[in-house]
Amino acid sequence: MQAVLSFDQAPPFAAPFRFFLTAPLFPLLAGLLLLIEGPPALASRWTPAMLALTHLIAVGFMLQAMLGAMIQILPVVAGANLPRPLLVARALHLLLVTGALALAAGFLGLFASAFPLAAVLLGTGVGGFALIAAFSLRGIPATSASIRSFRLALVGLCGLLVLGIMLAGGLSGLWRVPLIDLTRVHVNWALAGWGLALLSAVAYVVVPMFQITPAYPARFTRAFGPALLIAVLLASLAPLAADDVAELLQMPVIVLAAIFCGTTLWLQARSKRARPDATQKFWRLAMLAGLAAALLWAVARIVPPLAAWDGWPLLFGILVLVGGFMSVIIGMLYKIIPFLIWLHLQNRGKGRVIAPNMKAVLAESRMLRHLRLHLGACALLLAAVVWPAGLAHLAGLALMVASGYLFTNLLAAARLYRQHAARVDAVLAEAVHAVAKEGA
Does pLDDT of 2 surpass 80? Predict the structure, then answer.
């Protein structure tokens, strides 16, 4: 059963948009960091610069955009109204932005208390939001696959948060934990237990609605979320097992991710659109990157020289984070933001002032230009892993340019919203004044 959307329950526009607007600044910072650090940052996935860069993208961009999307989607898709959504959004946004910066500062060793500060800020913000979201979903019947998947994603978010706090304490010396093993478990919960679970919940709604495809098969939507959670739990046992068994425990997560990407591409191939728009192309890029990451993981299992190379985990991470999650989030932003602007301005105009067409909010040409910039940044980042001496600085610059262009696009959309909202208010005020004058 597909979710029934209730747009009259949408939160104020400023609640989710603050997350969307500031999210691109974090990969911009990540690109700046790579531009400054250069080749040493790409020596392995464990360098301080690479860990900071990874979390600027994963927490600063991904987590911020995804939580902003949940603030918007939970009331509309699940009917789960958050209490005082604007206040919740303001507090969460402040904690998330400062926490992501503190976390990056901790990896770079900028000040001693960075990791404990990040744990407090992110723990308070993300943990508080998870509790509020869980409370809002209490009593909501699971009438669609999206609602069931939202609940599973919140379980993944809580697991990710607990593991992150444990790691932050271990890195700051507050307690002793097996950092490498715990990090691998943390990555599974971050990318699959939370990221992929939430992506699937959103995809069940937005792919058929915005890309005009058939719905995801009912068997798939019923089984995917529970199977993914079980797979993440199994993968969490991998550090306790021998190497061969650990790879078998990790395999279900990779297989399920590949199945999701393949299913989404299969649906896109059946879209009723005559030509795919920018959003559909970003999604297609994301799904292809996900399949490429799964293939890379499989090849590394059977080709020992590749498995022994320090660069292959970096290639895998770039494919998943930048090629996969960043691409799909950008695609969703480019569809959701024009729709939200149209919806809120249409409601604000009360039939007296017509909202601008969605295509006037963000021109297709600008989105396609950003697609080319983003694709170029992905390619340069991958190539820089192979030839860091020649391409590391250029890859950092490319990521900065692509992220900066996204920021300017979203800023232009915000400017259009403010200008049209002011016009709507002026027209309505003039109408009220005219009625009052006639009554007098």
Answer: no
Residue 202 CB contacts under 8 Å (≥ 6 apart), including other chains: 69, 73, 146, 332
| Structure confidence at residue 427 (pLDDT) | 80
For the chain, give every domain's residue range.
7-424
Return the number of other C-beta atoms located less than 10 Å from residue 46's C-beta.
12
The SS3 of residue 87 is helix
**In this predicted structure, what is the pLDDT of residue 376?**
97
**Distance (Å, rounded) from C-alpha 320 to C-alpha 290?**
6
Confidence of residue 421 (pLDDT cuts 50, 70, 90): confident
Task: Report d(CA 45, CA 132) in Å as an integer.
Answer: 34
Helix ranges (H only) for 303-363 are: 304-308, 312-318, 327-349, 358-361
Q: Are 13 and 337 in contact (CB under 8 A)?
A: no
CA atoms within 13 A on the CB side of 225: 26
Contacts of 207 (CB under 8 A, 6+ apart): 213, 216, 264, 267, 268, 283
Q: Cβ(350)–Cβ(30) under 8 Å?
A: no
**Cα–Cα distance, 338 to 45 (Å, whole number):** 37
pTM over 0.85: yes
Rounded to whole angstroms, the Cα distance separating 13 from 96 reads 19
Q: What are the pLDDT digits (tens) for 191-202?
A: 999 999 999 999
Q: Does domain 7-424 have CATH number 1.20.210.10?
A: yes
pLDDT tens readout for residues 153-207:
999 999 999 999 999 999 998 899 999 999 999 999 999 999 999 999 999 998 9
